[in-house]
Write a structure and sequence with these properties.
Layout: E1 7-10, H1 13-31, H2 36-39, E2 48-54, E3 57-67, E4 70-78, H3 87-101, E5 106-112, H4 116-120, E6 125-126, E7 131-133, E8 136-144
Parallel strand pairs: 4-5
Antiparallel strand pairs: 1-2, 2-3, 3-4, 5-8, 6-8, 7-8
Length: 145
């Protein structure tokens, strides 16, 4: 798929949310081997879900969980054929804007270590040592807003 332009926004409706969950399953469970029970943690109903969409097709997803002055950024997934086109960066930028609108003072996340540079490129800094989550190396990161 050649992605010329896409829109990043909040997910709309149950059908789009089901498509987003299917994308997450494809990326995390099928591609990366994350057990489904770890990917589906029961927190989706309380989250804000951001999506990247082009011509009615879902290309990317992420989730924000707001707790006090902190937003937890998680579940960033981009369709295989849409990667390396800036979609993850645009979702991160929208996450910043949404978090500021909620009154958050910082964003936190657990980055897969191979993607640490993506997050550092938009202002996140590592905190703590590398750890294993769902069988994959991660590092905790945060960004002050």
């Amino acid at each position: 798929m050649s992605v010329v332009s896409y829109q990043v926004r909040r997910a709309r409706g149950n059908d789009e949310m089901q498509e987003a969950l299917a994308l997450r399953h494809e990326v995390f469970c099928s591609e990366q081997g994350v057990p489904e029970f770890e990917e589906l943690d029961g927190r989706d109903p309380e989250g804000i879900h951001l999506v990247a969409v082009a011509d009615g097709e879902l290309l990317g997803i992420c989730r924000l969980l707001h707790v006090g002055h902190t937003v937890q950024f998680s579940r960033l997934a981009v369709r295989t054929d849409a990667r390396r086109r800036g979609i993850a960066t645009k979702l991160l930028e929208l996450a910043d804007a949404e978090s500021r609108a909620l009154g958050a003072k910082r964003l936190v996340l657990h980055a897969q270590t191979y993607a640490q540079g993506l997050y550092e490129g938009v202002g996140y800094r590592p905190r703590g040592k590398v750890f294993v989550e769902a069988g994959i190396e991660h590092v905790a990161m945060e960004k002050v807003l």
